[in-house]
Model the fold of this input.
Amino acid sequence: LGWIGFRACYVVGVLLSLGIAAVGFALSLQTRTTSPDHNAENPFPTRTEGGPNPKVPPWGVIKALAFASGFATLALEVLWTRMFEQVLHNSVYTFSLILVAFLVSIGIGGGIASYLARIQIEPTRVLVAAGCVAGLTTGLTPFLFTEVTGGLGYLGESQGWWGYVGTISRTMALTVLIPGIAMGSFFPYLLKMAEPHTLSTGKTAGILTSINTVGGVLGSLAGAFFFLEVFGLWNGIRAVGSIYFWMALVAGVHLLPRNRAGTVVPVGGILLLLMVLNPAGLPMVKVSRDKEILDYWEGSAGTVAVVESPKTRSILVNNYYTLGGRLAKKYQETMSHIPLLAHPNPESVFYIGMGTGITAAGSMVHPVEKVTICEIIPEAVEASRQYFHEDVRGLFEDSRVEIVVEDGRLFLAASDRRYDVIIGDLFIPWKAGTGNLYSLENYRSGIRHLKEGGVYAQWIPLYQVSDFELGVIAETMLEVFPAVSVWRGDFFAEKSIVLLLGHKQATAFDPDRINARAEQLSEETVGFPLNDPKDFWMHYCGSMSRENSPFDEYPINRDDLPIIEYTAPITMRKERAGETEFIGGKEFLELMDWLRENSPWGEDPLLKNAGVKELGWIDEGYERHRSKIRGL
Done:
């Protein structure tokens, strides 16, 4: 995908599927279809000459087991994915590794089922054994996973890319391989058992596979929207484990009265899960000793926790993704103040991402008429409402505010509303699904939903991107916006944030209007990084255009070719291993110097109306930041 894009990969997949179908059709023309003897009154196959004549469950029971197998298997795949999300960096690669591990274990199980189908074992006993092994090992998964990861510790903290992949693979092999194999053997063996119920093996396989597929679809939905939200992760896994024991019990009933073990063992397994293997004491969120978990929620979008330490209170998603906290409150509000002041008269603002709500709270002290906030994680909204109420300037009570639990990009694309300012929060670049927020298509959607004179604010954490990722994002924005201004979010020597502000029109700033509005903010932002007109102008670094940019050699990030989605995770692992670096103070200073030399303050089209006072403040901001970086 990172090389040829989604469309090309889709075409390759279709061609491969057609090729497999063609080979299968050719083989069918060469092979004479045979079927076992069928007797409506005694539909049991003879496994081998002189071997046992085993009894198989009725056709209706087999169909029910096919459905249950698909349901439980795909529900568990969803739950396992969430389980691994607690200890991984959650890029497209880690999700792919989880899927590969799942498919490999299912494939091994299918091979074992094929072997068992050729030996003289009563088939119902095999089915009971497969269900019991799957149920038991699934029930043990939470305990084993917690032990292997050291209580949900982050995997491969300082490892490079391939070392990280190896660590993930080993962890998956230790925790989910055996239950995956047991699950994978159940349905293929069931297909073999069902052969005597029809004259056509193909028809039997087709009917059961379709039933199994329907069960899988419903199971995946249930895993995300029922088991996680009703039971939580650990108890959800336990509940799915019990389904396998129930499947074994249903099959085992048909061994009575010849063999009572087929019912006693599954019943014992169900009781074991209910009474002994209780994961309630296992951690769901890992924190250090100086931190306290105030509350947490488990939902389809993630595990959200409110964590408090002696210095701050913050929101965590899936253990290691911080949505923000009180410690950086002043800087988070500044992320609203800069773009809102840069617009001559902002009446409406749209936020992609909410987190704690502190960033959006900055808009409450501006004369805006409508604030729309999109947050994709409903539990994050609830966490903000309950535990950050005093930090968000009445965000939840203000009649101007609309909070929408929805994907911000999709909501914007489907809406016909237009805004003066659109603000994209700080996103983790390597997280799966984030890359499309930096795409050409998203910025095109953004500029369509801006009113005349509108601005699109894209905040970027320099401490999480390399110069390549920053260049790709900047070049992508420049493909859409006629002018992109660059603003420092702070004056830190390292680990700064930067604002790329896309302008719908390259209209010069109005210093008088900006200064007057910045003065009005001063009473509300005492002690904040942006407290007066001087502070605003000191954050300005310069502007770029399509014709004047240091990034014109970088590729464009598109939905079809998602460069950020596939490069950022590898960059992150290389940085952890010391093989590369994120953008530090010196690299940021190089960008500031380029802007200063190639778009001098006196020639910057956005500063055409700026006076000596404003230009002096901009220069003072540059000197202040340069001194911090150089340690002067």
Observations:
- Residues 161-193 form the longest helix (33 residues).
